[in-house]
Batch of 4 targets.
Target 1
Amino acid sequence: MEDTQPNDPIAELITNYHELNSSIIDELDEEPSPLEFMRYVARNTPFVVRGGAADWQATRTWTVDYLKDFLGDELVNVAVTPAGNADAPTPYTSPDDGSTTLVLAKPHEEDQPFSTFLDYLTTPPTPTGAPPSTNKKETRYAQTQNDNLHHEYRALLTHVPATIPWARIALCRSPDAVNLWVGNGASVTALHRDSYENVYVQVAGRKHFVLVPPACQAGVAERALRSGVYVRAGDGGGGGDGDGDGEDREKGGEGLRLVLEEGVEPVPFATWDPDRPEVNATPYSRLVQPMRVTLEPGDMLYLPCLWYHKVSQSCSPEGVCIAVNYWYDMDFTGPLYPLSTFVRSVSNQRK
Amino acid sequence: MEDTQPNDPIAELITNYHELNSSIIDELDEEPSPLEFMRYVARNTPFVVRGGAADWQATRTWTVDYLKDFLGDELVNVAVTPAGNADAPTPYTSPDDGSTTLVLAKPHEEDQPFSTFLDYLTTPPTPTGAPPSTNKKETRYAQTQNDNLHHEYRALLTHVPATIPWARIALCRSPDAVNLWVGNGASVTALHRDSYENVYVQVAGRKHFVLVPPACQAGVAERALRSGVYVRAGDGGGGGDGDGDGEDREKGGEGLRLVLEEGVEPVPFATWDPDRPEVNATPYSRLVQPMRVTLEPGDMLYLPCLWYHKVSQSCSPEGVCIAVNYWYDMDFTGPLYPLSTFVRSVSNQRK
Ligand SMILES: O=C(O)CCC(=O)C(=O)O
Ligand SMILES: O=C(O)CCC(=O)C(=O)O
């Protein structure tokens, strides 16, 4: 790992940013007014509202049994990976020459009855008393980010507000997407960023966010990654009977094979993991001071546009982790978007 | 003038900025709410409120005679220059070797009775019928930017609001400075920027603003300029009897001599003039699309922090140009300030 030079503008940017901004998240006791929220948007600075969604119907009523009663055998799209690594940089070993490269691994996707999916989530990986090595369980995560509360989960839509009033008023727009996330402690969402203002609401279990501001782009080691996709072994990708029963479970994580996608342009993706800061580091990574926050049920997080975020989860006593988030399109006018592209371009030229 | 390279991040930044942002200023018919204002602050985007200050006591009552009655012979600080170039990059010819360099010329400052100053401002430079070459008049501009409405001009303070309500509420702060500007068509304020959110209110006459966004920094040709100061010829700087009478006037613009200030660190200052775009241009200047707006009496301009601005003026029928502005300290948290320093550092390295 080379070191940074004196008068290196990129190092200076990261250092200046951290000198001027706290790495401890602001905690609000109640929801902000639209104006208070807009001040945070203007500063592109996250905050958490502790208990801001504590009285939502979702937060009060969504137990596993209640959800099963409600959605029953509706088919839902489930992301399946061997180790919880949906959309994550993952080593891929070429069957041709044995060489290993990082690829962006997309999950295997399949439709499953919602109650079967919940049963699978809440079954412990290793039967009590068995050695951990017998854990052959694959990881499943309902994480379609396509406004799924207006589609597959629309039966639950009225359990959450249609929009976040202070965000709608401040940003003058309705959410582009309202998404439900249902998983367990095995899933991790790798460090990435979105061009959305995000209001993320924890319903059951806990989420652990690691946040990196846009100014620290040069520390996250973006690389153009080819993309791969998991397929069930022994078939072209449609494998398993998809009902999540024992037959699938036996194949488990070992039944999934990562295959390269042909004809797909490599996409730039963060390869640095703030929880393993020595791996894939750039000379700038050590300057980055990630912000960490854990959301408890009923907490709301404002995650500003273009912030990198890594998200891991802990289960509720019932064994699930459930959240709902609202994506509001970011404002591409103003200086933030072009300046953030500029940071990326300058960083890429120094590689 | 070299050309920009393909994939030049700086060129891309300026082009992206302009593609995403209009170069025509937003015009509001009425003052914004704090939230509406905060949206502009978040986008770091100027707007003008036509007639927003039309009913201020200042706008309604400040005629030359009224001001004379009110302030009479109070001494006020006046910036004196040969050609209206207070705080402007100005060619300086060394008496030693005859070489010419640009220096940042500070005005000669002297105290004058307010009514004498107004008389001087409103006396035409050239007596009617005389050839223009007989114009030896110096330029005077009351432009102390030290919260002067709370000091020298405090007698006028109640004629304007103490703060701009929507700015105070949105920014959660009182103005750092409320400044009165009194000049005539001969003064021009050179392109520069301030770390303030600025609400600029035209009272009499017109001001012509040329605005350049912070993302275009590489086009304004900032150079570290030594500083100079005008002194009255024949003395060490305190010259003239300072009462603005005929004795001073005869010395006129020709009586002022620019001398280098010793022991003063050079400061980076924009040397590009959007009204003479070929002069002192950088390879990026031609990409810059300045925004232009003229303020009529009663108009208010929101000039966002870190925007470069050049300001020239036209007189009221009485021969003066009067404005009041409110400077609110900018928010140094968030990404704008460090990113704008970054743009400067990267641009400087490419010089
Ligand atoms: O909850 C997760 O696993 C990831 C959330 C996320 O990336 C987002 O809301 O943008
Ligand atoms: O009115 C002028 O001459 C200059 C105004 C200015 O530079 C400012 O308000 O920051």
Target 2
Amino acid sequence: MANKPQWDLIAEAFVNHYYSVFDTDRSQLATLYRDVSMLTFEGTACMGASAITQKLVSLPFQKVRHHVVTCDAQPVLPESLNGVLVFVNGDLTVDDGAQAIKFAQVFHLLPDRNSPGLFWVYNDLFRLNYG
Amino acid sequence: MANKPQWDLIAEAFVNHYYSVFDTDRSQLATLYRDVSMLTFEGTACMGASAITQKLVSLPFQKVRHHVVTCDAQPVLPESLNGVLVFVNGDLTVDDGAQAIKFAQVFHLLPDRNSPGLFWVYNDLFRLNYG
């Protein structure tokens, strides 16, 4: 762990938190987005914490469980913004389905200037990968 | 087409060009990266046009063909940089293999200040998704 770049640690902590909230009560994800945040979910774009949360809450399943297989991260220009680009590949299961579905998701995280150590989502792009 | 945001058009043009070059002569991809560019390929990180091209050229196949299934794009902060975040999901076949392999790739593109309309790759993250 000691040799991991800081952005890898930020990405892993964020991703663990994000999917934990998603799989428990996804209405609570609103706090991780802002008015300028963007989500492109399976090709459908929406903007702002409220619209994004509404989109996520309206997805047609009751239970969901994300399993992260890989989580890659890189720093994003400009350095002054301290952004982190996160690329997740994993599996998800919905409503006790036996078959996991592969997904890939991209987050561009920016630090919360009022809460050191916390990050919010500026860009979010999600795709299912049917097998 | 007329209603597509500009970043979608930029993303599609870039992606078509990138994979066309990749599948024809991937040593020529060097022109699309710079010294500060980053590639994380299947979890292995390298930096700079030279190291990135060396990594791509050394991949253990002679022929490769990328087929783009989805290409999503969003603008990236700060607006002054005019960056574009691109998220590609697709299939690739290598060396006349009958079985296509799914892949997902993320590009963060920045405009070439000396060549209006051209973009270079700042961030590049690539993962295969075995079925």
Target 3
Amino acid sequence: MIKPDSWRQRLHVVVFQNDTPAGRRFDQTLLIIILASLVVVMLDSVESMHREYAGLFTGLEWLFTLVFGIEYLLRLYCSPKPLRYAFSFYGVIDLLAVVPGLLTLFYSDAQYLLIVRVVRMLRIFRILKLGPYLKQANYLLAALRGSRQKIIVFLVSVSTLVTIFGALMYVVEGPEHGFTSIPKGIYWAIVTLTTVGFGDIVPKTPLGQVISSLVMITGYSIIAVPTGIFTAELATAMRGQELLRACPVCAKDRHEPEAGFCCRCGNPLFPRQPADG
Amino acid sequence: MIKPDSWRQRLHVVVFQNDTPAGRRFDQTLLIIILASLVVVMLDSVESMHREYAGLFTGLEWLFTLVFGIEYLLRLYCSPKPLRYAFSFYGVIDLLAVVPGLLTLFYSDAQYLLIVRVVRMLRIFRILKLGPYLKQANYLLAALRGSRQKIIVFLVSVSTLVTIFGALMYVVEGPEHGFTSIPKGIYWAIVTLTTVGFGDIVPKTPLGQVISSLVMITGYSIIAVPTGIFTAELATAMRGQELLRACPVCAKDRHEPEAGFCCRCGNPLFPRQPADG
Amino acid sequence: MIKPDSWRQRLHVVVFQNDTPAGRRFDQTLLIIILASLVVVMLDSVESMHREYAGLFTGLEWLFTLVFGIEYLLRLYCSPKPLRYAFSFYGVIDLLAVVPGLLTLFYSDAQYLLIVRVVRMLRIFRILKLGPYLKQANYLLAALRGSRQKIIVFLVSVSTLVTIFGALMYVVEGPEHGFTSIPKGIYWAIVTLTTVGFGDIVPKTPLGQVISSLVMITGYSIIAVPTGIFTAELATAMRGQELLRACPVCAKDRHEPEAGFCCRCGNPLFPRQPADG
Amino acid sequence: MIKPDSWRQRLHVVVFQNDTPAGRRFDQTLLIIILASLVVVMLDSVESMHREYAGLFTGLEWLFTLVFGIEYLLRLYCSPKPLRYAFSFYGVIDLLAVVPGLLTLFYSDAQYLLIVRVVRMLRIFRILKLGPYLKQANYLLAALRGSRQKIIVFLVSVSTLVTIFGALMYVVEGPEHGFTSIPKGIYWAIVTLTTVGFGDIVPKTPLGQVISSLVMITGYSIIAVPTGIFTAELATAMRGQELLRACPVCAKDRHEPEAGFCCRCGNPLFPRQPADG
């Protein structure tokens, strides 16, 4: 462990925690740098901007890589368990923020590095992880975790629906109306079932339009299912700070966190045990 | 009935149940084969793939038909009531997995058999029907069953809306703007009301755009109806029912979930226990 | 009033009620005729069908007008209060089913009569008004009535949003990108906010696309509002058969319909009054 | 303060309040004038209308400016604290209703003034702020305020999603399929995730269509999140809070809504009354 009040210890508070003014200021600075680096990535992708300011953008990118590199080394240095940090989710994200800059030394035209540079945005969540937001995000995560199985059942049903409808449309409409293969039909079915409706592929035959109508009404109706699942779980998660121990007499199983007696039957939740011996 | 520990009995456990390691392995193998057969169907529908690998795909299709055929015969053989199995929902689905392969012996260019081959996907639900998923799917089904009547009322109202709006648009916009008939107008109304919005037919006249705005806002608002119905039912299904404990004095046996006293005779449902000692 | 067991009385039971086999059969026949007349209207609007079968469709339309006319006269005849029936909602709908056929005697090419002919579909609701559906439709109507004021607040907010966003886009994008006037901009804002997205008018300038993104995320988020309103009201409406009298001691105000004592505190809901004198 | 029954006092009641017939009539007249001025702004933006009636529209706009100007001066005059009114939200909105008319004296072709003229619509909310609507709007605002933090977490997640997906599509599809820059990709991702689906930019490559399908299914599923958040909060806002009655023995004062016994000391919250007589 780290000796208290050491330099590393003080650094750890600033870099990893946010309940001190210094820690909060560090996080805010980092947030601004992350957002700035994202803006640079985006502007650099605009053709006209790139032609004019390519040099400036490359310079800024080098600067950001440097800053993130120093930050990564600091985190490694002041972390009590550097290896555990390095392989944690945020450790990997922090590393990914440095990698693209380094890789461009070797590959000059690495299009796919762009995505890694955008992944930096995930680091915002580290900063969001503070104060009141943490609790709210936990509610959302608890609701999502609680509804995981129902959502898997739902997604398998939706996948089956779009596969069957996609194949059906491929047979009914055929390649001459844009449904050139079953995967294309499935893509169309997803576009339609989710009510996105790009309009790049549309049914032309009367039978195809009847099937489309079915798909649309299905999609419009079953959107209720994930909503219902999630709402019910979230309501449970928000009520969920209660004491879950059942009353020994009436079996009521959700009590106030501080309860000593059941509020339905008045019997003690934790009867006093006879003294030993 | 089948004699325990016989060969058929052991086969039945492997093929139909999934609480043994062998049964689970059998189901997983089947799942992979089903997915593989689906992938083959899809790739085969892609023009360029079909031209190059038609022979391979036909061979694989024959293999899958063989495997599913053997599986079907095994299920028939080890089922305690073969006829009841054969006419059950899954029995028919299992048979349908074999039919298309056999039919291609007689019809060489059977486009519509494609759909039957895709229907194999429904067999995934047999495998999903295990462990924790079963309970979750039951919640969903209970909620859907509970809201069936409300949903029928809702669907009839939606059908009436799209018919009247479709006819209105046919009269207002006319064939020169793509609304060539009332069924086409209804198709447009469904596309619009469900917020899919392909854009293949769009209103051009000011009056048509006003009516469209009405349809869109209606569609946007009434999406609340199925969601509300389903959420309310799902919450009921998950919360369970009334307290079933009978009153110790008057024996009334269904109470409000939170009741502490009988609402008929006023006596406590859970008399307070004498203190220990 | 009508003398029991008279001919008119028996006709009234068949025509207006549906708890006898004869009444149910009458309703089912009517349902089929209404649907058939709708199918004829739709097919007649298809150009190729009209050219070939115009005579047949006109004949059928005459037949339907005759049937609905006889039915209307029967209803008038056997109704205990014919005038009140004639001016009731369903009385007007029943009359509208006859009118278009008669009017075509005078106007040969009455396009707008088409809509009146489609309005016949509303008559299906008369037939739906039976058994279990009635109660469910009442739940839905109660929930809609209960949320009326919240929905008006919501619709005024949405109208303000689309007007301001529509004017903004008219100024930002201008007539050269399809936003030819403020009403057109409002039409676009409705198409976008409701997530329909036809794609007939789309933003082309960067600023326009930023504003569009705002509109879309707003629309995607506030769809939660009507859903939330309706779900909360529907849950209340479904719980709503309870006794609403508050307990005189603890003021709990929702009890089982049969309750005599409060299920929270055990005190009588209706204390016995001292005898008079 | 203002002397009661003075002329200013009586004017204040008419102009600012709406519980007298005169006040209500004043508000209704104002509502009609606001709507009329909006209609004029809209019609004036239609090219053909503008060409023919430009003079009439300018005259009406002058009239409306005059009316709103007089109204603004009246409000300033009869307000007990004129400065506080002038800097309140509605004070600024009221002033904005007059400004565009005055500014056109100096700028003849001020396109952007159009938006200020449309902002007048916000004044409708002042008039809506009456009677039963106030309470309903408060429920909605309470639910929105209660879910603010959850919604921020949600919006940050959505922003991250659209940024990463937008960059991914820019790399996968490239400028030749319309994804000319990362911001354009983000615009597309928002159009798709919110299920709007204009169809002005659509994926053409198979990989792009697979990613699109992911985006669409994500968007379709996470629409459940804001709905769930809002519904849960609205239900809480409408159900009200815990039972506030203090326990007669230990004085604990916040209990579960259905509590019959104190959960700290086990004594009944509502002791049973002695029977009458």
Target 4
Amino acid sequence: MCRWFAYIGEEPILLEDILIKPKHSIIKQIDVHFLPYLHVIYDPHLYRKKFSSGVASDEHGPNHFTNVDGFGLGYYTGVAAEFNNDNINRPCVYKNVRPPLNDLNLISLCAHTSSKCVFAHIRAATRLSPIVETNNHPFVFGRYLFMHNGSVANFLNIKIALVQKLSENAYRNIFGTTDTEHVAALFFTHLGNDWDTELPMENLKNAMIKTLQDILTLIQESAKDMDETLPQSNLNFAVTDSCQLLATRFSSMDEFEPPSLYYSTTAGPTFNRKFPDHPDGKEVGKEATQATHNHGKHVIVASEPSTYKTKDWYLIPSNSFILIGKDLNVVIEKIDL
Amino acid sequence: MCRWFAYIGEEPILLEDILIKPKHSIIKQIDVHFLPYLHVIYDPHLYRKKFSSGVASDEHGPNHFTNVDGFGLGYYTGVAAEFNNDNINRPCVYKNVRPPLNDLNLISLCAHTSSKCVFAHIRAATRLSPIVETNNHPFVFGRYLFMHNGSVANFLNIKIALVQKLSENAYRNIFGTTDTEHVAALFFTHLGNDWDTELPMENLKNAMIKTLQDILTLIQESAKDMDETLPQSNLNFAVTDSCQLLATRFSSMDEFEPPSLYYSTTAGPTFNRKFPDHPDGKEVGKEATQATHNHGKHVIVASEPSTYKTKDWYLIPSNSFILIGKDLNVVIEKIDL
Amino acid sequence: MCRWFAYIGEEPILLEDILIKPKHSIIKQIDVHFLPYLHVIYDPHLYRKKFSSGVASDEHGPNHFTNVDGFGLGYYTGVAAEFNNDNINRPCVYKNVRPPLNDLNLISLCAHTSSKCVFAHIRAATRLSPIVETNNHPFVFGRYLFMHNGSVANFLNIKIALVQKLSENAYRNIFGTTDTEHVAALFFTHLGNDWDTELPMENLKNAMIKTLQDILTLIQESAKDMDETLPQSNLNFAVTDSCQLLATRFSSMDEFEPPSLYYSTTAGPTFNRKFPDHPDGKEVGKEATQATHNHGKHVIVASEPSTYKTKDWYLIPSNSFILIGKDLNVVIEKIDL
Amino acid sequence: MCRWFAYIGEEPILLEDILIKPKHSIIKQIDVHFLPYLHVIYDPHLYRKKFSSGVASDEHGPNHFTNVDGFGLGYYTGVAAEFNNDNINRPCVYKNVRPPLNDLNLISLCAHTSSKCVFAHIRAATRLSPIVETNNHPFVFGRYLFMHNGSVANFLNIKIALVQKLSENAYRNIFGTTDTEHVAALFFTHLGNDWDTELPMENLKNAMIKTLQDILTLIQESAKDMDETLPQSNLNFAVTDSCQLLATRFSSMDEFEPPSLYYSTTAGPTFNRKFPDHPDGKEVGKEATQATHNHGKHVIVASEPSTYKTKDWYLIPSNSFILIGKDLNVVIEKIDL
């Protein structure tokens, strides 16, 4: 299981405040982690759902893979759009296969960079895709970032059929060999050929539904061809164009729980050093220069909560969309395929 | 011979415009380069100066080392100072031992980052210091960046004596093994213990003079102890605190020409995509959105010119300071030890 | 243009002696090189052939790309076969994207390892395949190594059609995104499903002929579909199973000269420190412990000669096979498609 | 706490069999590990010794650092000595800052290389020394390898005084910035100036005693100068010249237990695929081709046992030498300073 973290808001955030400083920040989520206690409250036992291998649970420990297989970061600065005098707000991307805690470039970058939209991802590779930078998430398509926690079952069996569904542009935008990047190419094929202008959320949602349908169909056909039982896929995706964000918490089989995915619309000030409180707890001193109520509207979507305040975090229900529009309002919708 | 490039100005510059785009930008200066033709005009032959090994000249080719031994970049964003609500404007630093042209992180970072003060350096290592990131320039001391083209002769012979001259703070700020980082620590020892508040240029100049004197004395004593002839050192240093910049073009022996070092107070618009003209020549189309005269005051100091307009570049005389104050005025002064 | 070097013989060679020590060894072939003077004698002018971009020639300089895009090394030790008590002699492979001259691991490995069969490759990437280790040559398929100098024209246009020709095993053995690794998978599809037992040279030759035919057909069909003029491909391949070696010097269009490719059956002792003479010239002192005539039979095939003795090197004619059997005899054959 | 593993024997071992294959091999010891159950039997509680931070114990979990800060491997092939026709058997060294489990070069190297003497080390860096290859253990001095688990207390305070004790040769053989490499240089200063010919074990022991005395004295003097209480150092060192091996399990303060260190003279066949049994347990099938009693004499010294057979492993008492001579006999001696 990988893990990812996404921030979008009208309040710029210092990358260090969300990615490095918290005791349970994503770059420290290499093994045992902050207890995903809300996950239990949601209670898979009650719903009698099973966990597929590697999925967070309090019973088996939250993660039995070690996330040391590459870190990736995407964020928007708006600088290129200003210098190019267009409105094409493409992301800056940083990827490395070294453990992120040892990466002095990453640490310096995070200490000196703020953004209103950030994607971060830490990978636990399956043995199918090698550990090289081009396989690290998030992936860039025009102004979009795309990342994933989970895996597409039997990906190599459906890869050729999937590739044949891709538009020329999407196909040529693939630089690595992961299932995720190919799924992203399929999503951007369904989204159309213009990845630089802003599109309505409805378009993103429709493209994602078609993408999920295609993947499930391809897997079914492949299992049928090979006379195998249908395998399970975990498909927690996130995609953004800098001003809106769509994510999914999705398991291809109803009897399995997908990996955890939380959101928060209130944790921002706790992360941000300008405001009171600290992600590791109230007792950690912090000199606030602004009042909490002055913090801008924002949403965080993440595999695991990384502040101590559990009441700030909501578990997204299984097989649901979380849709965050330009107004930064959150809509949770059942995924209906 | 290494090479370095420094920009300071009131006009923010897109890193891509100075470091990546020009045909002769520093990351492309790995072997044969833009002809340092002004260097010839200055005419070492006339002054009968010799070139030490590796120094640029039109006679032997501008550079007989290959600069593939590590790239480093330092730039100021002001973001940390804003979030910390102090005035401590420390630099962001990025270093890598991969060839910079292949470094997708660097290329993305430069495409999405602008700054008013940038240091960049490409290394041709002597065999004494290994090729690891901690040996890449520029080096950070508090709010300062420090870099070097050249080498301190017989550095290992004087290292212990040099280290004993260092303040506790400067000593503990050394993370690699290069001559340059040790010289920097000596400079910051002479500068005093506060590396976070702005100091008058006079302090920087005095610290540099003491540093040069110390190095020359240490080398002389070592040569005497070992009964060797005095070796030659090339000491083209640059130091900045984000709002002023001091650099040296210095050879320890008068009969040798130091490596080339140029400055320009007018090349900025040619680099900057917002303004007319292009570093590779007028014929390269560029859609300017602003008039040249609107470009802010700025100074570039660099081992080699990297725009086609030779009249924009001045060779700094041997054994001189270039001092760029907060007003961005340029003063050239003979170094008088 | 990339470059490659292959050694096969009954005399083990210290890797340092072929890859590191010579002034013109492959790891030093990053830009201007040892004059491929035999190439001129062969005289493209006489035959009025053209050079495609990047091909060695004395007229335009031997190489106008800079080979800093990744080094790869494959060699056979026989150790695994001994410990596993089978006869499956698979290769050890080392790949890195750092400049090889700076790579202390590579330098140490070469100083302490000998082998009877070695493949080495230095890459000048086209912009289509990213610079990651999985894209470095040579590629491993069972007991085989495969490498390439040149490029498959319009590879992205034919990739899907090519992939559909692959056997399941060959397809699953692809870990990167280069044209070469896909061509290799096609070759090993034609070779059959057993890549661990030794096969007759005839099988290798037939598989290579089918591979070349397939590639040319795919390119023709793609050009026709897209209504484009037929592009030129350079296909200098090498493949070995540790005891025999097949290589091609091939241009897809007769009017173009393929990249240079030489062989030698006598240069071994000059490389080997146990024997008299030195790759950089007679004047370089070397204490031989054995007489030249005691050196075992061997063949070297390489993009460029890397000893000073031009009479030891033969340019392989355009569009030819070089076939080196278990008896280490050399056969040059016209490639007849 | 780091961890290290050493093998010396007359039976060559495939690197994969000791470093990669076992479930608890050193490259998998990044966090929670094989229970060091003998450690408990030795019973720190009985002796009422304390554990310093990071030391293995069953009470607090075996290791609360994560060992992802660089892997190093040294082994002897004898190849260079054969080609150079001297008897100078220097080691081959491989170091990387990537997680070793992701390192395809390391995995291939281990699959195809055997040796009679191997040192391997995995690092959990203190924040004082950066994570760069030159700081990875083991360190090479002539024909010797040197590695360390633990740390020298207040190293930066004693570094200059330590450096002044070094011979010119030892000083010039330092390429990184760790405490360990400096201690090694002190050891090789005491050993004398010839690091290429074999020396009696007595010389190694005396050099180590002087080194430990020097370190303790330097730390005492520094603590006194600074009016600080004496800090504790863990000094589990290992050194070899390929044919003999000396290691220490040492804590500078008697009331603290040093990190665990085990040895085995019988575990070799269990690791080695040629012989019956498997490091992960009898139930793991393995086709032996040789009988256990045919395995050559050997000794393993390691921070943690990595086979399931606890009776094969002995905990070395605190503050002791383990001395393994050319006859491969083991002598345990109290360290008497």
